[in-house]
Amino acid sequence: MKNKAMIVLSATALSLCLMTTAALAASGVERTVLLGAGAANVQKKNLTAQSASVPGKMLRVDRTQAQLTIFAWEKNEISVEATVEVSDSDPEFIKEFLDNTTMKLEAEAGGLRLRLTSPMDWDREKTDVSKRIGDALRTGRWNLSYAARIEIRVPASLSLDVSNHFGNVSVSGVTGQLGLRNESGEVRVEGCGGELKLENSFAAVRVVNFNGPIDVRNESGEVRAENIAGRTDIRNSFKDVQFAKIGGPLTVTAESAGIVGSGVAGDCRIATSFKPIDVRGIRGRLEVKGESCGVTVDDVSLDAAVESSFEPVKITNIKGGLRVTSESAAVTVEDIGGDASIKSSFQPIAVARIQGRLTVDGESSAVTVREADRDVVIKSSFMDVIVAGVGGSLEIRSESARVTAADVKKGATIKTSFNAVEARRIGGGLLVEGESSSVLAEDVGGAVSVKNSFKNVILRRTSGSITVSGESSAVDVEEIKALPPGSAIDIKTSFKPIQITLPAGIEVQGTAKTEFGKIITDIPIYLRDSGSAGGRAVSFGTGKGGLMLKLETSADITIKKR
What we know:
The protein has 562 residues and is mainly β. Helix content is 6%, strand content 54%.
């Protein structure tokens, strides 16, 4: 044979050639043209194989490198048609290559094996041609163009064990056990059933209308699964995963891949990184783990758990409970049917319409809560906390945060520092601890207890006992609505005045004491220290019942009656 002049080409030439074939087929070009119009000195060989009966239940397709199409037909036999095309600068080399290309369909344990053998199998067949091709591959010198297409017709109930490389694979209408392994080519499975185990790499996988469970592994390739009747398990990397109408549980484990899907009849577990997650319509439980992922979840029938970081999280319409654990991510949660637990940091947390108990942990996060039907517990720092509409009790423990709370059915406990506290329409008691915080409380249905410093305390329309312990805090108590029997008012501060307006007709017992100021009162008094200018200490009542009143400051005290 003549010495061949070898041209240095990319090691992906074969793959590119096969992808060109797929593009030609999609565009309607004569499908016998495999290598494309630019190939020179093209020769082809047609091969056929047939089995008039099907012993066993399995067809094994052994390590082909081809565009592979398998579809079911009504006959109980197997028919195979193949075309191989080769292009090279040396026509004699092409002829020798094709002479060494064969296809066999032969019996083996459990069924039949289909084998297309050519010198391209340089690691399997040690002919002179294959050795030369192997040497060319190893040294990076490549001059040959090769493409193959195989069409296989099989009985619908047959099982498949397919191993293919560098070509697209299509399977339709087959309902046995399907094992497909492909590399560097697209895979499509449509209208099949039984059970599918599929491995691929570097190209897309699509499974549509499959009646049974599927297990898909696709390295660096997109995956689409639609209308799957059973359990679905998908693993991939670096390309998106899309799913719809999954009839059983779904697990997606991905790396650096976006995930979008809807309609899962069972539980759903999603894990990926660095790309968005958007899942909807989950009829079971949902678990999402997304490292540096934006997460969108809507319409889950049972519980949901989401872990994420650094990108926004939006969760709506969860009929069960919800747990969100995030880091440096904005979180929006709406319409949760059970308990909800939310943790994030440094970004806003907004929650609305929670039917169960709510717990929020937001380090340096602004927190907004509206319409929570049961108890609410919030821990936060440095950013505003706004709560409106709580069907149970409210507890807020914050640091350096402005706190506003309104419409709480039961009691409220609020702790913060260096910022204002406002509480309105609290159905039960109110406890406030505010270091260097002003306090405004209106329409409180139970006892009020305030501890603060350096800022004003204003209480309006309260309905129970009042205790204020302030440091350099002015205290103003106005329009008391009710004081049940046994109520007491105990206010102590320093350097700032106390002013209180009592309901008309109430009996009062107690004392008022000031160090430097005046005591001005509408209530009859008993002077305790007559030597003090303006009266520094006075007593009220006869000690025989009524409101217990104790006021103490170093500034003025004013007591009025409506």
